[in-house]
Design a protein that fits this description.
Layout: H1 7-31, H2 36-43, H3 47-67, H4 72-94
Helix pairs in contact: 1-3, 1-4
């Protein structure tokens, strides 16, 4: 493995970060409101929840594949990018406030 990332590695890592952040959208839509027992029962009938579940399973396979040709210390900053993108998507999709701090 080279110390430099190739363009294809950067593209795969950027796609992973964006998809990880985007995968939170169907997960949040499927979460629902109300008592925990009702939410758990609602998961069985909620398409958003199953989309999120399938997406996260695919992302796990993608992450392992990326790590088969990219050193972890090079790949992990791209994973952190997903943490930065998630609140931005929450603001755009769910009109959540985007602010620094609590």
């Amino acid at each position: 493995m080279s110390d430099r990332l190739s363009l294809s590695q950067v593209a795969a890592l950027m796609a992973y970060a964006a998809t990880t952040a985007g995968g939170k959208t169907p997960a949040l839509r499927g979460a629902g409101d109300g008592p925990l027992a009702e939410r758990i029962a609602g998961f069985l009938l909620n398409g958003y929840f199953f989309v999120a579940l399938i997406l996260y399973a695919a992302l796990t396979v993608l992450w392992v594949w990326i790590l088969s040709f990219t050193q972890l210390w090079r790949a992990y900053p791209f994973l952190a990018l997903a943490f930065a993108l998630t609140p931005v998507l929450g603001c755009l999709v769910f009109a959540e406030p985007l602010r620094y701090g609590s």
